[in-house]
Amino acid sequence: MRVVYSDESGVGNIKKEPLTVVAALVINVDRDWDDIERDLNLIRLRAPDYLLESKRSLKGKKFYSLLRKDAEADERGLDETVKLQIARQAEDAKQILNQILAVLIKYRIAVFYGAVDRQGLINYQKRPNVSVEEKTTTPYDLAFSECLGRVDSAAWTFTNERLLWIADRSDKEREPATKSGLEFYRSTQVTAIPKQLGKVEDIGRISIADTIYFGNSSESIALQLADVCCSTITNYLLEQLYGWTYCATDFYMVIRRQVMNDGAPVVLQV
Predict the structure, then answer these.
(1) Of the chain's two ends, which shows fewer C-beta atoms within 10 Å, N or C?
(2) Domains defined along the chain, listed by start
(3) What is the pTM of this model?
(4) According to the model, what pLDDT value does residue 46 have?
């Protein structure tokens, strides 16, 4: 059985988070889960408390905020003692990050993502003749649809089983949006076929199970892995496309071969 674990970023303040990303991992739980869980729990137990969310969870934002603080220490004019402490903590963060991301390589975990430029979507929705449906689409809706479509298309090539999808329960608003996003994707598969191809049978069937389930990342080490992966992809894109300092490029290169749509353009980027 294969299970998809997903997480999202870029749903807060648009100035601080100009990019919305939904990232998904596909894990063969029958074959690999016991080993993956063991490896991740060992990493988590060995990590210093200051690198964990609430002293218990692996959190990408924790790692990258510390790395960014270290990279900008000189610009902030911090005391040398403070800079040394931050540098030591940043070194710990790098080691833990490398260990977490190495799990993706070790178990050949496939990664997919959808990314949407939030201001680009706003600009697009201001254009004349944009449908009501397009005007009400959120960056999360679009990023989720992009990610879902890529997982679905790839799944057809390696399994006849339906994939179980588990998303991080970030807030109550996105739960219905995620479920409706799955139904919308399923319903639009027929219209996605070019007319010149004629009628295609069974196009309404997709590889994802009938509903999407939700879990708390604090209770799921798999969702914590998805969170770290999503942060790595998001911060890498912010560095490459927006010129921001997030110190994620080297870590993205660790998992690049596992990212199935590496190099895909950001939707509606301006």
Answers:
(1) C
(2) 2-258 (3.30.420.10)
(3) 0.91
(4) 95
